[in-house]
């Protein structure tokens, strides 16, 4: 009799001091690049989680990262108003492009010869998408892109290259999606299927489709060429990132909110998984929640008519979530802040699984290129 397959064991990567902003596999899948709201850019062996090295030079939060087709170069964009090109193997900085505002998105085209990045609309500066041809060193040296596209209405929050590098697909703070030609800068298409900010865009393995993640609690599937809306995957919380499996008809979503943002939304933002949660009111423990309990347990000394609780601050202490409240809890309140990646069927739009174990929001998700991780 054949022995059962070994259970999968998660690998915890500890290399950042602040929350993750993006994770990205290279094409082969042997390397994983991670960036966060700290200046560190890490690269890891994906098979065992060993850190291969870091790319040092940024002085602010790093919002985006990408590797070219053959993993020779790495591109990063940061809140320190710079986009940097690195030698993947040595970690040496090859190029520095200074900008007027934070670099929000960046990426290599299909051949790895052209880079694009977008800057934020802030401090009186307009949002731009800039294109540089790495085969012309003078463009980098003189900080003169061969094309620069202004986006005055709404800043770009996520952008990816389309098939064959002919255009880019940009998602905006307003929920709009645009196609911009990489040759002329012309806007090829414009649609608005989301009602709030688009947090993430990722393409399918064959570049025929892409999926968006939005603050409007949905992820949506589109055709890359026509921008036709194909599918919608709905949740009960903001979706921060979404990815398409390269081998199955599966979609994974990650989302949630920081504790400071929960007060602006419904107390039932939930569908989360929790371990132990202690709720504090004026320094004393009022109530708690444990795995398997139907909801929040309220001590007898609290009347059923107590005003509902609102989260003010959440801290993690030895696997216990400490939550301070601005008002008291009722038996119907159900605070559960710990999100899980959620898996949906691509065709049927139905959720079929979750993975427990996260503390805090999930800001970025990605499938390994072989589709098995």
Structure write-up:
- With 373 residues, this protein is mainly beta.
- It has 2 domains: 20-259 and 343-354, 7 Propeller (Methylamine Dehydrogenase, Chain H), CATH 2.130.10.10; 262-325, no CATH class.
- The protein is 2% helix and 44% strand.
- It is built from 2 helices and 28 strands.
- The strands form 7 sheets. It has a 4-stranded antiparallel β-sheet, with no helix packed on it. It has a 4-stranded antiparallel β-sheet with strand order 5-6-7-8, with no helix packed on it. The chain has a 4-stranded antiparallel β-sheet with strand order 9-10-11-12.
- A hairpin with a 2-residue loop joins strand 23 (276-281) and strand 24.
- The radius of gyration is 22 Å and the shape is globular.
Architecture blueprint of SSEs:
Layout: E1 20-25, E2 31-36, E3 41-45, E4 51-55, E5 62-67, E6 73-78, E7 82-87, E8 93-98, E9 103-108, E10 114-119, E11 127-133, H1 137-141, E12 147-151, E13 156-161, E14 167-172, E15 176-181, E16 187-192, E17 198-203, E18 209-214, E19 218-223, E20 229-234, E21 239-244, E22 250-255, H2 259-262, E23 276-281, E24 284-289, E25 311-317, E26 320-325, E27 342-345, E28 351-354
Parallel strand pairs: 23-26
Antiparallel strand pairs: 1-2, 2-3, 3-4, 5-6, 6-7, 7-8, 9-10, 10-11, 11-12, 13-14, 14-15, 15-16, 17-18, 18-19, 19-20, 21-22, 22-27, 23-24, 25-26, 27-28
């Amino acid at each position: 009799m054949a022995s059962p397959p070994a259970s999968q064991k998660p690998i915890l990567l500890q290399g950042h001091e602040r929350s993750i902003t993006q994770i990205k596999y290279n094409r082969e899948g042997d390397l994983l690049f991670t960036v966060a709201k700290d200046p560190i850019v890490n690269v890891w062996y994906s098979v065992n989680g060993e850190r291969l090295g870091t790319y040092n030079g940024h002085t602010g939060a790093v919002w985006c990262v990408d590797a070219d087709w053959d993993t020779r170069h790495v591109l990063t964009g940061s809140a320190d108003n710079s986009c940097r090109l690195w030698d993947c193997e040595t970690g040496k900085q090859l190029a520095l492009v200074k900008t007027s505002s934070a670099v929000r998105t960046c990426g290599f085209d299909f051949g790895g010869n052209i880079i694009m990045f977008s800057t934020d609309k802030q401090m009186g500066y307009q949002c731009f998408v800039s294109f540089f041809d790495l085969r012309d060193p003078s463009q980098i040296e003189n900080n003169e892109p061969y094309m620069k596209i202004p986006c005055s209405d709404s800043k770009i929050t996520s952008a990816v290259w389309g098939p064959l590098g002919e255009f880019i697909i940009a998602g905006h703070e307003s929920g709009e999606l645009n196609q911009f030609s990489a040759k002329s800068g012309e806007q090829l298409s414009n649609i608005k299927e989301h009602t709030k900010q688009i947090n993430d865009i990722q393409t399918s393995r064959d570049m025929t489709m892409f999926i968006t993640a939005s603050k409007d609690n949905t992820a949506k599937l589109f055709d890359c060429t026509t921008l036709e809306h194909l599918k919608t995957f709905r949740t009960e919380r903001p979706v921060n990132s979404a990815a398409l499996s390269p081998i199955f008809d599966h979609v994974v979503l990650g989302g949630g909110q920081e504790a400071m943002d929960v007060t602006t939304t419904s107390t039932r933002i939930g569908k989360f998984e929790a371990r132990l949660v202690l709720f504090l009111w004026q320094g004393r423990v009022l109530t708690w929640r444990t795995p398997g309990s139907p909801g929040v347990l309220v001590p007898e000394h609290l009347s059923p008519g107590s005003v509902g609780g609102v989260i003010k601050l959440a801290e993690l202490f030895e696997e216990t979530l400490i939550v301070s409240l601005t008002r008291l809890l009722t038996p119907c309140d159900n605070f559960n802040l710990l999100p899980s990646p959620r898996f949906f069927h691509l065709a049927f739009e139905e959720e079929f699984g979750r993975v427990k174990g996260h503390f805090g929001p999930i800001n970025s998700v990605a499938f390994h290129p072989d589709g098995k991780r």
